[in-house]
Amino acid sequence: MKKLVRMRRKKPTQLRLNTVRAGIKEKWKKPKGKFGRRKKVLKTSKGEVPKQGRRMPNSLRGLHPSGMEIIEVENVLQLNGLDPKTQGVKIRKVGNKKRIEIIKKAIEQKLVILNVRKPEEKLKSLEKPKKTKKTEDTKKEKVAEKKSDSDKTTEKESELKKEKSKGAAEE
To answer: pLDDT tens-digit profile of 101-120?
Structure first.
């Protein structure tokens, strides 16, 4: 397995010219101009050009960069019979309930989950109860609080008026 991963690392990257600039993707695109600089550079053997014979070995094609075979999983039953040394699990599009079950089972079997970085932390975050929606009870409580607040302000206003009237009567 280590030998295969080393072979993968040796694979040259074939890039377009000026991929450092914004908007130019890091992928190969054959230069088609007559007088293009990249075409001239390629003739002087600076930079790799995709050619036949530069393809990945058969044993490496379709593997994860870590060297594991990717097994896509949609339910817990598909985890049975997998080899934790050579096969990694990729969880497909499933809901949170199934995702929790799959992660638990994969941790039990000591399988590597390729599309979840830290499975234990992910499990904790998925199992946290989500915030419940506001129910009618909480809405009623808020309305009652607002009414009590408005009652308090009217009481204060009436007290201020009384004080003013007393002050005016004394004068």
So the answer is: 999 999 999 999 999 999 99
User: What is the C-alpha separation between 107 and 118, in angstroms, rounded?
Assistant: 11
pLDDT of amino acid 138: 75
Residue among 54, 86, 81, 59 nearest 70 (CA): 86
Helix (H) or strand (E) holding 87: strand 87-91
pLDDT (average), residues 86-100: 94
Q: What is the DSSP string of 15-83?
A: --TTTTSTT--SS------SS-HHHHHHHTT-S----TT-SPPTTTTTB-TTSPEEEEESSGGGGTT--
Residue 11 DSSP label: S
* Amino acid identity for residue 82 in this structure: L
Phi, psi angles (nearest 5°) of residue 82 = -90, 145
Distance (Å, rounded) from C-alpha 97 to C-alpha 130? 13
| Maximum C-alpha span of the chain | 108
Total H helices, total E strands in the chain: 5, 3
Q: Please identify which residue in the block is written with the tokens 């497909």.
A: 92
CB contact at 8 A, 7 and 60: yes
The mean pLDDT of 93-98, rounded to a whole number, is 93
Residue type at 30 in one-letter notation: K
Distance CA(106)–CA(118), nearest Å, equals 12
